[in-house]
Amino acid sequence: MDKQSKKEIMFERMKEKKKEGKTVRRIVAIIALVVLLIVGIAGFQVYNFVSGALKPVDPDSEKVVEVEVPIGSNLDSIAELLEKNGIVKDARVYKYYVKFNNESEFQAGTYGLLPSMTLDEITQSLKTGKVYREPLFTITVPEGLTLEQIAENVIAKKTDFTAEQFMEKVNDEAYIDELMVKYPTLLTDEIKNENVRYALEGYLYPATYPFYEEDPSLTLIIEQMLNATQSNVVQYEAVLQEMEKTPHWLLTFASLLEEEATSLSDRQTIASVFYNRINDDMPLQTDPTVIYAKDEETDRLFNKDYEFEHPYSTYTNKGLPPGPIASAGIESIQAVLDPADTKYFYFLADSTGKNHFAETYDQHLANRDKFIGQ
Protein backbone atom coordinates (compact mmCIF):
# COMPACT_ATOMS: atom_id res chain seq x y z
CA MET A 1 0.00 0.00 0.00
CA ASP A 2 1.50 3.32 -0.98
CA LYS A 3 1.88 6.37 1.25
CA GLN A 4 -0.99 8.17 -0.47
CA SER A 5 -3.42 5.38 0.28
CA LYS A 6 -2.35 5.27 3.94
CA LYS A 7 -2.94 9.01 4.30
CA GLU A 8 -6.37 8.73 2.78
CA ILE A 9 -7.32 5.88 5.12
CA MET A 10 -6.07 7.82 8.17
CA PHE A 11 -7.92 10.90 7.02
CA GLU A 12 -11.17 8.91 6.64
CA ARG A 13 -10.74 7.40 10.10
CA MET A 14 -10.17 10.83 11.62
CA LYS A 15 -13.34 12.10 9.94
CA GLU A 16 -15.32 9.13 11.30
CA LYS A 17 -13.96 9.65 14.84
CA LYS A 18 -14.76 13.33 14.66
CA LYS A 19 -18.27 12.49 13.46
CA GLU A 20 -18.70 9.90 16.24
CA GLY A 21 -17.48 12.39 18.83
CA LYS A 22 -19.94 14.96 17.59
CA THR A 23 -22.75 12.39 17.72
CA VAL A 24 -21.79 11.33 21.23
CA ARG A 25 -21.73 14.94 22.41
CA ARG A 26 -25.12 15.50 20.82
CA ILE A 27 -26.57 12.39 22.46
CA VAL A 28 -25.08 13.38 25.83
CA ALA A 29 -26.52 16.86 25.45
CA ILE A 30 -29.93 15.46 24.61
CA ILE A 31 -29.81 13.01 27.54
CA ALA A 32 -28.70 15.79 29.88
CA LEU A 33 -31.51 18.00 28.65
CA VAL A 34 -34.02 15.21 29.12
CA VAL A 35 -32.70 14.50 32.64
CA LEU A 36 -32.88 18.18 33.53
CA LEU A 37 -36.38 18.34 32.10
CA ILE A 38 -37.45 15.27 34.08
CA VAL A 39 -35.87 16.64 37.25
CA GLY A 40 -37.52 19.99 36.62
CA ILE A 41 -40.92 18.45 36.03
CA ALA A 42 -40.53 16.17 39.03
CA GLY A 43 -39.43 19.09 41.16
CA PHE A 44 -42.37 21.16 39.97
CA GLN A 45 -44.77 18.31 40.70
CA VAL A 46 -43.28 17.78 44.14
CA TYR A 47 -43.55 21.50 44.83
CA ASN A 48 -47.18 21.56 43.74
CA PHE A 49 -47.94 18.43 45.77
CA VAL A 50 -46.36 19.76 48.96
CA SER A 51 -47.80 23.27 48.62
CA GLY A 52 -51.23 21.75 47.98
CA ALA A 53 -50.93 19.42 50.96
CA LEU A 54 -50.14 22.40 53.21
CA LYS A 55 -53.53 23.93 52.41
CA PRO A 56 -56.91 22.97 53.95
CA VAL A 57 -58.56 19.88 52.47
CA ASP A 58 -61.76 21.82 51.73
CA PRO A 59 -61.68 25.56 52.57
CA ASP A 60 -65.49 25.84 52.27
CA SER A 61 -66.42 22.81 54.37
CA GLU A 62 -68.44 23.32 57.56
CA LYS A 63 -68.71 19.60 58.30
CA VAL A 64 -67.43 18.76 61.77
CA VAL A 65 -65.59 15.43 61.78
CA GLU A 66 -65.18 13.62 65.08
CA VAL A 67 -61.61 12.35 65.42
CA GLU A 68 -60.53 10.30 68.43
CA VAL A 69 -56.84 10.41 69.32
CA PRO A 70 -56.06 7.44 71.62
CA ILE A 71 -53.78 7.76 74.63
CA GLY A 72 -50.18 7.00 73.70
CA SER A 73 -50.55 8.01 70.05
CA ASN A 74 -47.35 9.15 68.35
CA LEU A 75 -47.00 11.70 65.56
CA ASP A 76 -47.05 9.03 62.83
CA SER A 77 -50.33 7.52 64.01
CA ILE A 78 -51.94 10.93 64.57
CA ALA A 79 -50.94 12.10 61.08
CA GLU A 80 -52.36 8.92 59.51
CA LEU A 81 -55.55 9.32 61.57
CA LEU A 82 -56.01 12.88 60.32
CA GLU A 83 -55.49 11.83 56.70
CA LYS A 84 -57.90 8.89 57.08
CA ASN A 85 -60.60 11.24 58.40
CA GLY A 86 -60.08 13.80 55.65
CA ILE A 87 -58.67 16.52 57.91
CA VAL A 88 -55.26 16.73 56.18
CA LYS A 89 -54.39 15.90 52.58
CA ASP A 90 -51.22 13.92 53.26
CA ALA A 91 -49.98 12.38 56.51
CA ARG A 92 -46.30 12.63 55.54
CA VAL A 93 -46.51 16.33 54.72
CA TYR A 94 -48.33 17.05 57.98
CA LYS A 95 -45.74 15.06 59.91
CA TYR A 96 -42.88 17.06 58.38
CA TYR A 97 -44.81 20.31 58.94
CA VAL A 98 -45.08 19.50 62.65
CA LYS A 99 -41.40 18.55 62.89
CA PHE A 100 -40.17 21.64 61.03
CA ASN A 101 -42.23 23.83 63.37
CA ASN A 102 -40.98 21.99 66.47
CA GLU A 103 -44.52 21.20 67.62
CA SER A 104 -45.13 18.47 70.20
CA GLU A 105 -47.14 17.45 73.27
CA PHE A 106 -50.35 16.54 71.47
CA GLN A 107 -53.21 15.58 73.78
CA ALA A 108 -55.34 12.45 73.54
CA GLY A 109 -59.08 12.94 73.29
CA THR A 110 -62.04 13.31 70.95
CA TYR A 111 -61.89 16.34 68.65
CA GLY A 112 -64.44 18.00 66.40
CA LEU A 113 -62.24 19.01 63.47
CA LEU A 114 -63.13 20.51 60.10
CA PRO A 115 -61.62 19.85 56.64
CA SER A 116 -61.48 23.66 56.25
CA MET A 117 -59.00 24.08 59.13
CA THR A 118 -55.40 25.08 58.40
CA LEU A 119 -52.53 22.85 59.53
CA ASP A 120 -51.72 25.38 62.24
CA GLU A 121 -55.32 25.37 63.51
CA ILE A 122 -55.33 21.57 63.58
CA THR A 123 -52.02 21.50 65.43
CA GLN A 124 -53.13 24.05 68.02
CA SER A 125 -56.34 22.07 68.57
CA LEU A 126 -54.39 18.88 69.22
CA LYS A 127 -52.07 20.71 71.61
CA THR A 128 -54.74 22.54 73.61
CA GLY A 129 -57.40 19.84 73.59
CA LYS A 130 -60.04 21.99 71.88
CA VAL A 131 -61.04 23.20 68.44
CA TYR A 132 -58.88 26.26 67.82
CA ARG A 133 -61.56 28.12 65.90
CA GLU A 134 -64.48 30.34 66.87
CA PRO A 135 -67.66 30.20 64.76
CA LEU A 136 -68.94 33.45 63.25
CA PHE A 137 -72.43 32.54 64.42
CA THR A 138 -74.53 29.58 65.49
CA ILE A 139 -77.99 28.25 64.65
CA THR A 140 -79.97 26.42 67.33
CA VAL A 141 -82.80 24.06 66.37
CA PRO A 142 -84.85 23.14 69.47
CA GLU A 143 -86.35 19.68 69.87
CA GLY A 144 -89.89 19.14 68.67
CA LEU A 145 -90.00 21.63 65.78
CA THR A 146 -91.61 20.83 62.44
CA LEU A 147 -89.97 21.78 59.15
CA GLU A 148 -92.28 24.77 58.83
CA GLN A 149 -91.38 25.92 62.35
CA ILE A 150 -87.67 25.51 61.62
CA ALA A 151 -88.17 27.61 58.49
CA GLU A 152 -90.05 30.40 60.28
CA ASN A 153 -88.47 30.41 63.75
CA VAL A 154 -84.87 29.50 62.95
CA ILE A 155 -83.81 29.95 59.33
CA ALA A 156 -85.76 33.16 58.66
CA LYS A 157 -84.54 34.71 61.91
CA LYS A 158 -80.90 33.61 61.92
CA THR A 159 -79.98 33.76 58.23
CA ASP A 160 -80.69 35.90 55.17
CA PHE A 161 -82.94 33.20 53.73
CA THR A 162 -86.71 33.42 53.96
CA ALA A 163 -88.92 30.64 55.29
CA GLU A 164 -90.30 30.23 51.76
CA GLN A 165 -86.82 29.74 50.28
CA PHE A 166 -86.01 27.13 52.90
CA MET A 167 -89.26 25.21 52.33
CA GLU A 168 -88.75 25.36 48.58
CA LYS A 169 -85.28 23.86 48.99
CA VAL A 170 -86.31 21.00 51.30
CA ASN A 171 -89.19 20.13 48.98
CA ASP A 172 -87.21 20.24 45.74
CA GLU A 173 -87.56 16.76 44.20
CA ALA A 174 -84.20 16.87 42.42
CA TYR A 175 -82.46 17.91 45.65
CA ILE A 176 -84.24 15.15 47.60
CA ASP A 177 -82.96 12.63 45.03
CA GLU A 178 -79.41 13.95 45.46
CA LEU A 179 -79.69 13.62 49.23
CA MET A 180 -80.99 10.05 48.96
CA VAL A 181 -77.84 9.15 47.02
CA LYS A 182 -75.64 10.94 49.55
CA TYR A 183 -77.39 9.41 52.60
CA PRO A 184 -78.56 6.00 51.31
CA THR A 185 -78.96 4.31 54.71
CA LEU A 186 -80.76 7.27 56.28
CA LEU A 187 -82.98 8.55 53.47
CA THR A 188 -84.82 5.58 51.96
CA ASP A 189 -87.81 5.30 49.64
CA GLU A 190 -90.05 5.59 52.71
CA ILE A 191 -89.66 9.38 52.65
CA LYS A 192 -91.32 9.39 49.22
CA ASN A 193 -94.48 7.66 50.41
CA GLU A 194 -97.43 9.49 48.85
CA ASN A 195 -98.87 10.12 52.33
CA VAL A 196 -95.69 11.76 53.68
CA ARG A 197 -96.21 15.52 53.88
CA TYR A 198 -92.55 16.56 53.73
CA ALA A 199 -89.76 14.15 52.81
CA LEU A 200 -87.26 15.69 55.27
CA GLU A 201 -89.72 16.18 58.13
CA GLY A 202 -88.05 14.85 61.29
CA TYR A 203 -84.68 14.39 59.58
CA LEU A 204 -83.12 17.74 60.55
CA TYR A 205 -81.57 17.03 63.92
CA PRO A 206 -82.27 19.45 66.78
CA ALA A 207 -78.95 20.88 67.98
CA THR A 208 -76.74 23.97 67.96
CA TYR A 209 -74.72 24.28 64.76
CA PRO A 210 -71.56 26.42 64.39
CA PHE A 211 -70.89 28.24 61.13
CA TYR A 212 -67.51 29.63 60.12
CA GLU A 213 -68.59 31.76 57.19
CA GLU A 214 -70.94 34.73 57.13
CA ASP A 215 -73.36 33.45 54.51
CA PRO A 216 -73.56 29.64 54.50
CA SER A 217 -75.71 28.19 51.73
CA LEU A 218 -79.01 26.44 52.39
CA THR A 219 -77.39 23.24 51.17
CA LEU A 220 -74.67 23.56 53.81
CA ILE A 221 -77.18 24.31 56.57
CA ILE A 222 -79.51 21.46 55.66
CA GLU A 223 -76.76 18.88 55.18
CA GLN A 224 -75.07 19.79 58.44
CA MET A 225 -78.36 18.95 60.17
CA LEU A 226 -78.66 15.72 58.17
CA ASN A 227 -75.10 14.79 59.14
CA ALA A 228 -76.07 15.15 62.79
CA THR A 229 -79.14 12.93 62.30
CA GLN A 230 -77.01 10.37 60.52
CA SER A 231 -74.47 10.36 63.36
CA ASN A 232 -77.16 9.88 65.98
CA VAL A 233 -79.02 7.15 64.10
CA VAL A 234 -76.14 5.14 62.63
CA GLN A 235 -74.97 4.08 66.09
CA TYR A 236 -78.20 2.08 66.44
CA GLU A 237 -77.99 0.44 63.02
CA ALA A 238 -77.33 -3.02 64.47
CA VAL A 239 -80.24 -2.68 66.92
CA LEU A 240 -82.60 -1.61 64.15
CA GLN A 241 -81.51 -4.53 61.97
CA GLU A 242 -82.16 -6.93 64.83
CA MET A 243 -85.62 -5.38 65.32
CA GLU A 244 -86.16 -5.45 61.53
CA LYS A 245 -86.94 -1.73 61.64
CA THR A 246 -85.71 1.26 59.64
CA PRO A 247 -84.39 4.74 60.51
CA HIS A 248 -87.68 6.14 59.18
CA TRP A 249 -89.64 4.02 61.65
CA LEU A 250 -87.30 5.10 64.46
CA LEU A 251 -87.55 8.83 63.71
CA THR A 252 -91.33 8.61 63.27
CA PHE A 253 -91.80 6.84 66.60
CA ALA A 254 -89.34 9.19 68.33
CA SER A 255 -91.17 12.26 67.01
CA LEU A 256 -94.34 11.17 68.83
CA LEU A 257 -92.44 10.88 72.10
CA GLU A 258 -90.82 14.27 71.54
CA GLU A 259 -94.23 15.89 71.18
CA GLU A 260 -95.87 14.07 74.10
CA ALA A 261 -93.15 13.80 76.74
CA THR A 262 -92.16 16.33 79.38
CA SER A 263 -89.25 14.40 80.93
CA LEU A 264 -86.84 11.58 80.15
CA SER A 265 -88.79 9.07 82.25
CA ASP A 266 -91.99 10.13 80.45
CA ARG A 267 -90.42 9.29 77.09
CA GLN A 268 -89.64 5.73 78.12
CA THR A 269 -93.03 5.24 79.76
CA ILE A 270 -94.96 6.74 76.84
CA ALA A 271 -92.94 4.51 74.52
CA SER A 272 -94.15 1.51 76.55
CA VAL A 273 -97.76 2.73 76.18
CA PHE A 274 -97.39 2.95 72.41
CA TYR A 275 -95.75 -0.47 72.21
CA ASN A 276 -98.53 -1.98 74.35
CA ARG A 277 -101.19 -0.43 72.13
CA ILE A 278 -99.51 -1.58 68.93
CA ASN A 279 -99.13 -5.11 70.29
CA ASP A 280 -102.81 -5.12 71.32
CA ASP A 281 -103.90 -3.79 67.88
CA MET A 282 -105.16 -0.52 69.37
CA PRO A 283 -104.78 2.90 67.74
CA LEU A 284 -102.13 5.08 69.39
CA GLN A 285 -104.54 8.01 69.80
CA THR A 286 -101.89 10.68 70.36
CA ASP A 287 -103.14 14.26 69.98
CA PRO A 288 -100.02 15.75 68.31
CA THR A 289 -100.71 13.60 65.22
CA VAL A 290 -104.16 15.15 64.90
CA ILE A 291 -102.73 18.65 65.23
CA TYR A 292 -100.14 17.81 62.57
CA ALA A 293 -102.80 16.27 60.34
CA LYS A 294 -104.99 19.39 60.57
CA ASP A 295 -101.91 21.55 59.92
CA GLU A 296 -102.97 24.26 62.34
CA GLU A 297 -101.75 25.27 65.78
CA THR A 298 -104.25 24.83 68.60
CA ASP A 299 -104.26 24.52 72.38
CA ARG A 300 -107.27 22.24 72.45
CA LEU A 301 -108.87 19.53 70.33
CA PHE A 302 -112.61 18.83 70.15
CA ASN A 303 -114.53 15.62 69.42
CA LYS A 304 -114.89 16.52 65.75
CA ASP A 305 -111.09 16.85 65.50
CA TYR A 306 -110.60 13.26 66.64
CA GLU A 307 -112.90 12.14 63.83
CA PHE A 308 -110.85 14.03 61.24
CA GLU A 309 -109.83 11.55 58.53
CA HIS A 310 -106.18 11.92 57.61
CA PRO A 311 -103.21 9.51 57.12
CA TYR A 312 -101.34 11.18 60.01
CA SER A 313 -104.17 10.91 62.54
CA THR A 314 -103.54 8.08 65.00
CA TYR A 315 -107.17 8.25 66.06
CA THR A 316 -108.55 7.21 62.68
CA ASN A 317 -105.58 4.96 61.77
CA LYS A 318 -103.74 2.24 63.67
CA GLY A 319 -99.97 2.17 64.01
CA LEU A 320 -97.48 4.95 63.39
CA PRO A 321 -98.21 7.86 61.02
CA PRO A 322 -96.59 7.82 57.54
CA GLY A 323 -93.60 9.81 58.79
CA PRO A 324 -92.20 11.97 61.61
CA ILE A 325 -94.29 14.89 62.81
CA ALA A 326 -91.31 16.82 64.26
CA SER A 327 -87.56 16.64 64.85
CA ALA A 328 -86.75 14.37 67.80
CA GLY A 329 -83.72 14.60 70.08
CA ILE A 330 -81.46 11.76 71.19
CA GLU A 331 -83.45 11.12 74.40
CA SER A 332 -86.60 10.32 72.40
CA ILE A 333 -84.63 8.17 69.96
CA GLN A 334 -83.12 6.19 72.82
CA ALA A 335 -86.51 5.83 74.55
CA VAL A 336 -87.93 4.13 71.45
CA LEU A 337 -85.16 1.54 71.61
CA ASP A 338 -85.19 1.22 75.41
CA PRO A 339 -88.79 1.67 76.59
CA ALA A 340 -89.96 1.17 80.17
CA ASP A 341 -91.52 -2.20 81.01
CA THR A 342 -95.10 -1.34 81.95
CA LYS A 343 -98.68 -2.50 81.47
CA TYR A 344 -99.93 1.02 80.78
CA PHE A 345 -102.31 1.61 77.89
CA TYR A 346 -103.37 5.18 78.68
CA PHE A 347 -101.94 8.50 79.74
CA LEU A 348 -102.95 12.14 79.97
CA ALA A 349 -101.31 15.43 80.94
CA ASP A 350 -102.63 17.75 83.63
CA SER A 351 -102.55 21.56 83.54
CA THR A 352 -98.91 21.60 84.66
CA GLY A 353 -97.85 19.27 81.87
CA LYS A 354 -97.30 16.26 84.12
CA ASN A 355 -98.36 12.94 82.62
CA HIS A 356 -100.50 10.41 84.48
CA PHE A 357 -100.59 6.79 83.36
CA ALA A 358 -103.20 4.06 83.66
CA GLU A 359 -103.49 0.36 82.86
CA THR A 360 -107.25 0.32 82.27
CA TYR A 361 -109.75 2.67 80.70
CA ASP A 362 -111.59 3.04 84.00
CA GLN A 363 -108.36 4.16 85.69
CA HIS A 364 -107.81 6.55 82.81
CA LEU A 365 -111.27 8.08 83.29
CA ALA A 366 -110.56 8.45 87.00
CA ASN A 367 -107.31 10.28 86.17
CA ARG A 368 -109.20 12.52 83.78
CA ASP A 369 -111.78 13.43 86.44
CA LYS A 370 -109.06 13.99 89.02
CA PHE A 371 -106.50 15.93 87.03
CA ILE A 372 -108.52 17.58 84.27
CA GLY A 373 -111.93 17.88 85.89
CA GLN A 374 -114.06 16.37 83.14
TrEMBL record:
Domain of life: Bacteria
Role description: Functions as a peptidoglycan terminase that cleaves nascent peptidoglycan strands endolytically to terminate their elongation.
Keyword Transferase in record: no
CDD domains listed in its UniProt record: MltG_like
Family from the record: Belongs to the transglycosylase MltG family.
Subcellular location: Cell membrane
GO cellular component: plasma membrane
Organism the protein comes from: Planococcus koreensis
Keywords from the named record: Cell membrane, Cell wall biogenesis/degradation, Lyase, Membrane, Transmembrane, Transmembrane helix
UniProt main location, coarse: membrane
Membrane-topology descriptor: Single-pass membrane protein
Residues spanning the membrane: 27-47
Enzyme Commission identifier(s): 4.2.2.29
Keyword Oxidoreductase in annotation: no
Protein's recorded name: Endolytic murein transglycosylase
GO terms of biological process kind: cell wall organization; peptidoglycan biosynthetic process
GO molecular function, one term: lytic endotransglycosylase activity
Annotated positions for site Important for catalytic activity: 260
Coiled-coil blocks: none
InterPro entries to which the protein is assigned, alphabetical: MLTG-like
Swiss-Prot/TrEMBL catalytic activity: a peptidoglycan chain = a peptidoglycan chain with N-acetyl-1,6-anhydromuramyl-[peptide] at the reducing end + a peptidoglycan chain with N-acetylglucosamine at the non-reducing end
